[in-house]
Amino acid sequence: MKAQNDTYYIALSVKLDKKDVPIFKKEIKHQLTQAMKPLVNEGRVQAISVYSHNKTAEKHGGFPAWDALLLIQIKEASCAKTILPYLKQMNLPFLPETIRMELLVTTPESTYPIPGEGALSRRTKPFYAVEYVDVQEQFLQEFQSIMISGNGPAMKYIMQHAKWCHHFYALETVTVFYHNPNYPAWNQIHVIGLYLEAIFRYKKDFAKGLELANHISFEDNFARLKEIRTMLFKTIGRKIV
User: Fold this and answer.
1) Beta-sheet strands, E only, within the chain
2) Burial letters for 154-170: b for 16+ Cβ neighbours within 10 Å, e otherwise?
3) Under DSSP, is residue 53 helix (H, G, I), strand (E, B) or coil?
4) Cα angle: 216, vertex 217, 223; to 5 degrees
5) Angle separating helix axes 152-161 and 198-214, nearest 10 degrees
6) What pTM value is reported for the model?
7) Torsion angle defined by CA atoms of residues 198, 203, 206 and 207, in that order, rounded to the nearest 10 degrees
8) Which of 46, 129, 202, 240 lies 20 to 30 angstroms, CA to CA, from 223?
9) Is 80 exceeded by the pLDDT of residue 92?
10) DSSP character for 16?
11) Helix (H) or strand (E) run with residue 184 in it
12) In this predicted structure, which of 90-99, 169-178, 211-220 has the lowest mean pLDDT?
């Protein structure tokens, strides 16, 4: 299983009026496909996915929750400037509130978009956890090292040997094009496709992956993470596109 390295994504985090959620889920695929069609044909846009935030699993702060993440894989970082005008021209039948628009890059050895054989054999669709993570600036390099040497390989182990993880994206903010000042900031986004038994098997399997990768315990690994990062907003939802 090969990690997806040096790959760039544009991300839009958006908030919707409650009345607009059903039409968003129905129309967003068509609207994105239409807006991005010339760029897809040219190869500048390589993949599009949209994740709904149906339930809040974790939240640190009094800010209102937002509703969806739009993730667009692009050929290279320089494509972002051409793509942004297309996004602004989307003819949506409602006006979502943009919380943030940013360019991200995959954390080295930590992103696995193709499911393992066990997950591929399943008939049910996964649910998705989306994590907005704020790492203290002075510890960004250490956090990346933890991902490269421990957490990323541990997720790879899980995807190879367990059936409960569909895919794992670890993305780092490169450039923020817009951020609504009424909301807190973050510098990492993780997207994890999961099946129900993840709830029961996560700790045991992740601990085994960490031991094999870096000879560190589950407890020590997450104790350090708690010191250097905040799980700002974690949601559970579905992949719409």
Assistant:
1) 8-15, 45-52, 55-59, 68-74, 97-106, 127-135, 165-179, 188-194, 229-237
2) bbbbbbeebbbbbbbbb
3) coil
4) 100
5) 120
6) 0.96
7) -160
8) 129
9) no
10) -
11) none
12) 90-99
Asked if the model's pLDDT at residue 149 lies above 90, the reply is yes
Count of residues making up the chain: 241
Element (H, E) at 207: helix 198-214
Structure token digits, residue 199: 């709830």
Cα distance from N-terminal residue to C-terminal residue, the chain? 24
What is d(CA 9, CA 74) in angstroms, rounded to the nearest whole number?
Answer: 6
Question: In terms of Cα–Cα distance, which of 76, 184, 51 is closest to 129?
Answer: 51
CA–CA separation, 150 and 108 (whole Å)? 11
Per the structure block, which two tokens stand in for 171? 């993305």
Q: Are 241 and 152 in contact (CB under 8 A)?
A: no
Single-letter residue type at 137: E
If you search the block for the tokens 């002075």, which residue do you land on? 138
- Cα(129)–Cα(127) distance, integer angstroms: 7
Answer whether residue 187 shows pLDDT above 90.
yes
Computed from CA positions of residues 192, 198, 203, 208, in that sequence, does the dihedral angle turn out positive or negative?
negative
Closest residue by Cα to residue 195 from 110, 112, 123, 113 = 123
What distances in angstroms separate CA 150 from CA 14, 58, 109, 181, 194, one per listed residue? 31, 23, 10, 34, 20
